[in-house]
Amino acid sequence: MRVAIVPPVLALLPEYAGREDPVADLRAAAQAAVAWLLDDPAGGPVRVLAADAQAERIGAHLLGASAPDPARGGPRAGDPALVLVNGSSKRSERAPGHLDERAHAFDEVLGAALAAGDTAALAGLDRALATQLGTSGLDVLASLRELSVDEVVVDYADDPYGVSYWVVRWTCAS
Questions:
Q1: What is the CA radius of gyration of the chain?
Q2: How far is the C-alpha of 6 from the C-alpha of 141, rounded, in Å?
Q3: What is the dihedral of CA 102, 98, 133, 83, to 10 degrees?
Q4: Distances from the Cα of 72 to the Cαs of 16, 99, 126, 173, in angstroms?
Q5: Termini Cα distance of the chain
Q6: pLDDT (tens digit per residue) in 3-42
Q7: Which pLDDT tens digit goes with each residue over 51-66?
């Protein structure tokens, strides 16, 4: 089973693009991860795991014409999953949520767990703190706690505009 984790960033939608792409590296990483996900020879329909309608919309856009009607709902054994999540939105004074001194430490733990494929650590993150820090999709990550992650590739890890974004690919035991 394959899992691709990407941020639900509005800038990934064409209607939010400008003449210059402010998230070109993020876009390229997200598109590559989705292509890898769709190329899963053992997978069924891609499951879009998102916390809200905006994230679902971004997931559907990223899947594009290759999967015009993606399956929705919780993870099912063997089906590839596109998970939409981001870290805190309070990493700097210019961030959407302004600066919160706790954001960097929280994101370090979140990023390390994503990079290690540590689903137990992800499920154990403080949800109240995550909400205060403006994260998105933490409950979705917690729904993956039963997965056994065999291989991890981190394609992107940065905090443009004071928001933590990761693009991560997991290969999991079926």
A1: 15
A2: 12
A3: -120
A4: 25, 34, 26, 21
A5: 5
A6: 999 999 999 998 887 788 889 999 999 999 999 999 987 7
A7: 999 999 999 999 984 4
